[in-house]
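Worked example

This section walks through a single chain of length 471. The input is the sequence exactly as stored; nothing has been trimmed or padded.
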Amino acid sequence: MAQLIELPHVGESVVEGTIGKWLKQPGDRVERYDPLVEVVTDKVTMEVPSPVAGELLRIIAQEGETVPMGAPIAEVDDGSGTSTGEPPATQATAPTPAPAQASPTPSTPTSYLIMDARPVGPTGGSAVEAQSQEDAPAPTEPTPAAAVPQAVIRAVDQDRETSVERVPNRLSPAVRRLAAEHNLDVDRIAGTGMGGRVTRNDVLRYLEQRPAAIATAATPAPVTPVPAPALVAQPATPSADEERVPLTPVRRMIADAMVRSVTQIPHAWSMVEVDITELVGLRDRYRARYRAREGVNLTYLPFALKAVASALKDNPTMNASWGDDCIILKRRINLGIAVAAPTGLVVPVIRDADRLSISGLAHAVADLSDRARGGTLRLEDVQGGTFTVNNTGALGSVLGGPIINHPQAGILTTEAVQQRPVVINDAIAIRWMMNLCLSFDHRINDGAESGAFMQSVKSRLEAMDGDTPIY
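Given that input, the structure is written out below as tokens.
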């Protein structure tokens, strides 16, 4: 019997995925739980296993194609000998049971079979979580494979190939919000997704083209058009001094996340200098003993995280997100930490960071960083962040303008620790200094609020000395 394999639902805020790589090809034998395909979402890269054993008949969703969760992606023959939707001839004379009496064998759900989930791109809570849950389509039970007629299967293929009719009511929350912000009628937008589904890129492309259309419609009399600059067509093949690197699904997801952040969030930026001379002495005093006792390095990042978490409690509008008609304050302080993983930048989350000691934060940083670089983070490890800290100083940076991790209210970078000459009491002294850089959502906070937050972080770091408890 031919069974449809669906793209499993992996979380309320994940509404679509991109087919990264098929691990099996049509004609291959697959066993139950064998890895079948790699799927990239805006949260993780995951291997989807086969929920049934049998022969892979065909691939419905091709590599690089973005499909909604729950959509069919492949078809497997489990060898039962019964063709889906075509009853055996011996059943032709039997009375047809009422639909309510039918008891097809349900297909095995794959949502709990996800394995090798790897984080993708800057991640945190995807959009405002409360609104995402309201906007998201109501969950439905997966259609049993045995109950899907061959005509429906053929229609799915035809819909994919022709994209004649748009799949109704399958707009992602991000698309709905973007369309609502710009008062757009999505029915006027040509969809390039599966079955003509409108994607975020379709809306952004429409917005780029719309100003010209509006200007033309608003002009009552014909005017002489101003010729636009000629677009330089990309050559079909790179020249001798060029090399084109194809985008991986992970790189494309990161690019989409960055575009979404800078187009939807009005960024503002601020920087302060921090004198951490006493903190350097504190860390040097504990560093060797801590490594021997705890088995992890005591870096400057846990101290900064402690200061940030405490400052967020005093400045709650920095621990927030934009809700269109309101500002949503987060009751929990879940700090995301940016990690450079082999597949790209990821942001695992330390939950309830304000409840942890400096030592607890050091262990959390070491654990999440190791698992991020090893590709063993779980989906829940990259969800629910409320504010992000990026230790760009570890890369030698002294100044930065980070992009906010959408939909959070801000992101802070800790820059390189350096000795500099500074003026203290009309005298020049050599001190250990560090820059803190903040990008913040100007819809939520102004300079006064962001400045108060930065001064709060600064004062806490400068107050750390030999009497500061580590545990």
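What to look for: Residues 266-463 form a domain with the Chloramphenicol Acetyltransferase fold (CATH 3.30.559.10).
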